[in-house]
Amino acid sequence: MTSLPRSFVPAAAATLLMLCAVGVPTGAASAAEPSSASAMIQATVDEVLVILKDPKLDAPSRRSRIEQLASSHFHFETVSKYVVTRYWKSFSDTEKAEFIEVFKTFLSRTYGDRIERYQDEKVKIVGERPEGRSDVVVMTRIVGGTYDDAEVNYRLREIDGAWRVIDVKIEGISLVMNYRDQFKSFLSRGGAAALLEALRKKNAEPRPAA
Length: 210
Description:
Oligomer: single chain
Strand content: 15-25%
CATH class: Alpha Beta
Largest sheet: 5 strands, antiparallel
CATH architecture: Roll
CATH superfamily: Tgt2/MlaC
Number of helices: 6
């Protein structure tokens, strides 16, 4: 099981992906308004970059601080359904709950360990466009660092009166589609049990070097 190609994951974007994955609420979500999708992404970017640039924080402290940020803006149940697709209906309630948790951990480990690659990158919001089902895509670009001008787009949906991230595309590669493709073989061979076992084993491995 592999992660997104490293060449497509700038540290700043990876940190935002990890932040979205951890599932730690930090307060009430903003009411859904036409401009609030971009405003939510901008506020999150600003908070993340302050932490990344703080010289007084070591790597564990940075990771801990970022994991306490605004991941209440990410709707992980929707992401999980889209990643698993038609197999989701065959999962028991217990398997659904476990998948959400182990997938969160998997993403947090995958992207959280890249924090130390930060190269004074910035994230610039360059636009917002409507998508199907009344979704909104907030388009951003990385400024500076090795991945200068890399495109990172966040797809948001209004759920329970708030904008929630339901997918992220880095240079055209969708988080949802990437893991859908990776998990398909486990699901087709052994269903929920096989995929959950694979994720448990992956999460139990020692953390890779940053």
